[in-house]
Amino acid sequence: MSKSLDIKISNTGIATLTLNRPERHNAFDDELIVEMTAVLEQLAANPQARVLLLTGAGKSFSAGADLGWMKRMASYGEAENLADAQKLAKLMHTLDTLNMPTVAAVQGPAYGGGVGLVACCDMVFAAPEAQFSLTEVKLGLIPAVISPYVIRKIGAGQARRYFLSGERFSSAIAQKIGLVHELAPQDEVAVLATSWATQLLNNGPLSMAAAKRLVAEVADKPICSELTSLCAQRIAAQRVSAEGQEGLTAFLEKRPPNWVKH
Ligand code: COA
Q1: β-pairing, 110-111 with 123-126?
Q2: Angle, to 10 degrees, between the axis of helix 225-240 and the axis of helix 205-218?
Q3: Is the pLDDT of residue 2 over 80?
Q4: 261 CA to centre of own chain
Q5: Is 60 near ligand 1, meaning CB less than 6 Å away?
Q6: 162 lines ligand 1 (CB under 6 A)
Q7: In what order do the strands lie in the sheet with 168-169?
Q8: How far apart are CA 73 and CA 84, in angstroms?
Q9: Residue 82 Ramachandran class (φ > 0 left, ψ -120 to 50 alpha, else beta)
């Protein structure tokens, strides 16, 4: 692994992934994208990792796509260009659907694809210094690959403003429009995010993964018999699962469930 990513897994199961390219404000190029995707895939398969904490080293959370890499793509053909863009799409999808809770500690500004990473996380904590901006149109680009995740978070109405203006907005605005869940002073953001990551360890790991899939399956769907029956199937399966049975038995026996480490 290059030094542009740092991964540490605590004894308790918190995997802290730090974007570590501060001299480029943690911008990600093709190499870093492939590497980060591979790291996330390895975490998904690692039973030691139970919660992902994503943060950035240095002043910025992430300056998004590496603009040198974007510019270089002009020398590639259409097919290579598309295949390359799919790699970023894969990174966003992998983060978005990771089989464990993902917590972002946004300690500094996030631009373009950096906003995309934030939008793919389950819980987002940000410092007042963490300004946000979808700058793509200022560069003659569009926030295409990240758009499903950002629009899902902030809605089409807000996306129309921020995609088109490219303006910077504060973490307070980001919280108001749903991109950020909670604000904390810069020196406390990591502490708050870690405290939440620690609390998540008390919840059933498989049930959290299933709850996350449930949100994806149910969000924005019309409430019809197909959907209500799918939801009934989901709880019917979960309550008889080993984890469901352990959680229910632990409650009734007034003891902690077996996934809680002492
Ligand atoms: N891709 C590649 N390099 C980047 C980058 C990016 N997205 N963002 C910053 N850098 C580089 C700068 O080119 C500069 O390189 P240099 O030292 O070789 O000149 C270095 O990081 C430091 O950036 P600099 O602009 O000098 O720092 P700053 O504190 O004045 O400004 C930013 C920081 C992030 C506000 C500014 O660099 C910026 O606006 N970057 C573009 C962010 C963006 O629009 N991202 C969306 C991409 S779709």
Answers
A1: unpaired
A2: 180
A3: no
A4: 25
A5: yes
A6: no
A7: 110-111, 132-133, 168-169
A8: 9
A9: alpha
